[in-house]
Amino acid sequence: MTDISKERNNLHFRIWMLMIRIIFIFGIPAGIGFFVGKYLDERFSMRPKATVITLLLTFVLSWFITVFEYGKITKKLKALDEKEELEEKSKKNSQDNNL
User: Fold this and answer.
1) Where are the alpha helices (H) located in the chain, listed in sequence order?
2) What is the predicted pLDDT for the residue at 98?
3) pLDDT tens by residue, 8-63
4) Residues contacting residue 70 through CB under 8 Å, at least 6 positions apart
5) Integer distance in angstroms from the first to the last C-alpha of the chain?
6) What confidence category does residue 1 fall into, taking pLDDT thresholds of 50, 70 and 90?
7) What is the phi/psi pair of residue 45, to 5°?
8) Do residues 48 and 41 touch, judged by C-beta distance below 8 A?
9) What does pTM read for this prediction?
10) What is the extent of the structural domain holding 58?
11) Considering its fold, how many domains does the chain have in total?
């Protein structure tokens, strides 16, 4: 297995780990937002506005975090693809030179 294949497998594993992280990225802020919203609803008698607002804010925040993480992995995959293409071209050129 080549180094690039190992790196690619590593990135695919990291994608799976990202999926698990996404569960936490959405779940934990939503849970915190729910309880903070409930507290604010009871404290300021604005039921259910505070809960809805905090849940919407945590949802938007979670999406920003998810898109940021996806962008980092996509950049790494593109770099690996370019590296792989360069290796294939150099192998092809060396084979052509040997003929």
Assistant:
1) 3-44, 49-98
2) 72
3) 888 889 888 878 988 899 999 999 999 999 999 999 998 899 999 999 999 999 99
4) 18
5) 26
6) low
7) 50, 55
8) yes
9) 0.67
10) 3-98
11) 1
